[in-house]
Every structure is written in structure tokens, then in C-alpha cells.
Amino acid sequence: MNNINNQSLLGVLCEPGEQTLAVANPATGAVLGYIPVCSEAEITAAIARSHLAQGTWQRLPAKERAQLMQGWYELLMANQADLARLMTLEQGKPLAESMAEVAYGAAFIQWFAEEGKRALGTTIPAHTQDRRLVTIKQPVGVVAAITPWNFPIAMITRKAGPALAAGCSIIIKPANQTPLCAYAVVELARQAGIPDDVLQVVIHHSPEVVGDIFTHHPDIKKLSFTGSTKVGGHLLAQCAGTVKNTSMELGGNAPFIVFDDADIELAVQGALAAKFRNGGQTCVCANRFYIHDTIYDQFVPRFIAGVKALKVGNGLEPDVQIGPMIDAAAKERVIAGVRQAQKQGAVIAAGGGDLAGCFVEPTVLVDVHQTMDFIQNELFGPVAPILRFNNDELLIAQANDTIYGLAAFFYSRDINRIWTVAEALDYGMVGINEGIISTELAPFGGVKQSGFGREGGCEGLDEYLETKYLCFGGIGRG
Ligand code: NAP
Of the residues 104, 146, 236, 278, which should be mutated to test ligand 1's pocket, given the most ligand atoms within 8 Å of the CB? Predict the structure, then answer.
């Protein structure tokens, strides 16, 4: 773990022991360091401290919270290079992508620092002369967040930003594979003056134990989860007992559609970006490609050439575009998906080779059909299955034929088709002639079993606010 300039970011590291968690580099398998895990009593104590701290934080004027958050944003950006290096070491993504994620993650803190000042209520024209009707916005209370490893900083700041801005305290359980980034960003929040108990991280060997405590504890007023649909559904059921406010950012199965009137070069570039960012381990990743018959022979060879040019390796090496899968099990799952598709008739048109370690060669599959298993499931790896189509109506039905509804992408230059298709796709987000859609400025989130709630944009703050209605009576009685 050398070459991290700001050593205080790594203050959490400890000697190995029973109550510690080893953090490994997926590119090399080397242990980066050990961090202490919490006991159940310590997690419960963290909730109690969070509950106490929330009252004080809530009473701070929004402008003062915003100033502290702006300081945090500035420290995140001042430490961008160190945070990015840490991210590549523990998560594996190429350094350039880590740099971009730090900036993207920090942007949520700045955006919500500003948005918090605009948590506006309303006045409502009353139904009688002697009443006045008003709404105010108040924080939901203590928030628990559970986040995944694929965006180890942005998935935290996308929740912590709006929670803090709204006046909530927040406790984060990051993925056990990427806790160092979590500790590092929280350390910078402390350096910026955000009180310790307002923003905390907890780690336990068992995610189930943390999930149980978070979902059953009466002082946790909201659970915000990002991860798989399976775990999200499970947590949602557990939250029913205390009727918790929840936000669920879950899995995806994004179709990427290229119509016959598309700008082919733009579509190829968009396809490479939408598929291979983070080695295909992104919830909005293009999961299946639908290419119109008449341009299939123009699109596919260019796409394959782009895929073959992708450089695979340790994300710290210059020019690497595809890092390792997060672990050996993730690699095995991707390889098994390809093998199963081959058994069902798919043909490898690029890649498919056996690489050492946790690396997977970027792979293109053709002769793919809608009924194949991996068209229905989230691939989460650098594999691009290509299907043909020649009928818009049937295509929309196939694109929507999934339990998921997070993101979809399509390329066309026909304005009539663009509106028709954009409205017909059952997805929370649609990229039109664009393969990268995430920004702090816009609402991110899904429909169907991809979850509910929005992160980012003006909508993101509302997830952490309750609307309280005040009815003033007796007006005008002298
Ligand atoms: P995951 O297995 O659901 O894990 C996500 C988080 O939940 C981790 O912190 C994990 O802890 C924790 N967890 C696992 N089982 C749990 C349980 N029973 N109770 C409480 N917490 C539990 O998902 P993943 O494989 O890490 O992440 C990939 C998934 O996230 C994909 O499906 C992807 O599409 C989705 N995702 C969605 C979005 C979005 O915005 N919609 C964004 C990014 C990722 P441990 O690490 O300790 O196991």
C-alpha cells in the first residue's frame, strides 16, 4: 500500500487478527492490509451515537451544513489522485476510471450541499377563510446505507450527500471488498469538520448481521441500499417490521439498440463505453446488443475491432482499459455464462481466451437468441452478446422482456422513432445516442425489479426528507 501521499487516509489499517478483515488487490491477489471489524454491540452503539448526533445536525442551518460539505468536496478533489490509486488497488478498475469516479463521487457532495438550501416547503390556498395551509420539509432521521464494491466512492457519496444536506446522520456499511475507499472518504469528511457521529462506517465479517441490525433497529428511519435485486428484496422484506422508508438501487439488464438510421461510428463508440466501463461490472452496463439487420454488417466488425483493441491488465499500468473482475468467483460466473451460451448455440466472435488470475478477456458473442439464459440475467463482466432484429415493435417487446428496468440505450437519428422508443422502453433511464449517462445533475434509478427511489438531481434530496403539513386555524378571530 505504498505511494499513498496522504497516510491519514489509511489510519484505519491494523495488524492481522481474529477481529480483522483482510483487503485484497484483485489484480494481484496480494493482501493490501487489514482493518478492524465491529462487534454487534459496536454497531448498535454507533446507531445510538448517530441518533444523538442527528438532532444537533438537523438544527444546524442548511447554509452551515453546506459550508462543511463544500469543504469535504474540496478535500476529496485535493486528494483525487490518492483516492483513485486506493480505488484501483482494492477494486481493480483502471486508474483513469478511478480518477473519474472520485470526481463523479465528489460532485454529489457539492451538488447536494447546494440543493440542501432549497428544501422548500409550500403554501396551499386554504379551503376556508380562517385557515392557512403550509408544508415544511424535515429530515427523515438516522439513515443506514449499504453499498456495493463496483463504485466504492460514488455509491457512498450519492447517499451521504443528500442525507447530510437534508439534516440526516448516516451510517454506511460498504462492501467488504472495498472498505478502504469508504474509510478514506469518511476520514476526509472529518478533516472537513463534519462531526464524527454524523457520518460513520461500520464493517462486520457478515453482511447479514449488519443488515439484520439496520433493518430491525427502531432508530434507523431509512435504509438506502445499492446492490443486487436478490439482496435488496430480502432487505425490503426485513424492513417491513419497522415500516422503514427505503430506497433501492438494484440490478440491471440494459439493452443497447442500434437502428438502421443510426450514426454507426457514434454507436460503436457508445457501445464500447456502455459495455466495457469498469470491465462490464456496472449496473447500467449494456448487457445485450440488438442490431438492425440492415446495418449489422457495418456495426459488428467495427465493434469487434474496438473490442480486440482493449488492453487488459493491472489498472495501475498505463493505458489499461479492462482491469480484473472483483474476485475469482465473479470471473467463474462470467466464464460459466459464456460456456452456457455456447452450449445454447452462441458463437464467440472475439475474445473468449483463458486469462490468468481474475482477468477475463473482452468477448463478443454472435448468433445469440432472446431465450438464452444470459440474455435474461445480469452478466456483470466484459462480454457482449449480439442479437439481430428487423421489426421495431418486436424489438421493444424483447428489450422490455426482463424483470429489470434500470437503463437502456438506443441509437437513431429519426426524431419520431426516438420519441416513440424512448417512451416505450420500461426503464428508469434511457441513453439516446449516448452510452454514458450518469451525472450528479440527473435522477438515477430504476423501475420494476431494478428498484425505486432516485439518486442525484433535484429528486435525490427528497429521498431523505419528509413533508410535514401544518394547518393553522382561527385566523382572523382578532
Ligand atoms: P450484493 O451482493 O447485493 O452486495 C451489495 C452490498 O450488500 C454489499 O455491501 C454486501 O456486503 C451487502 N450484502 C450482501 N448480502 C447482504 C445481506 N444479506 N444483508 C445485508 N447486506 C448484504 O451486490 P454486489 O454483487 O456487491 O454488487 C453488484 C450488484 O449491485 C449488481 O446487481 C449491480 O447491478 C448492483 N448495483 C446497482 C446500482 C444502482 O444504482 N442501481 C449501482 C451499483 C451496483 P458484502 O460486501 O459484505 O457482501
Answer: 146
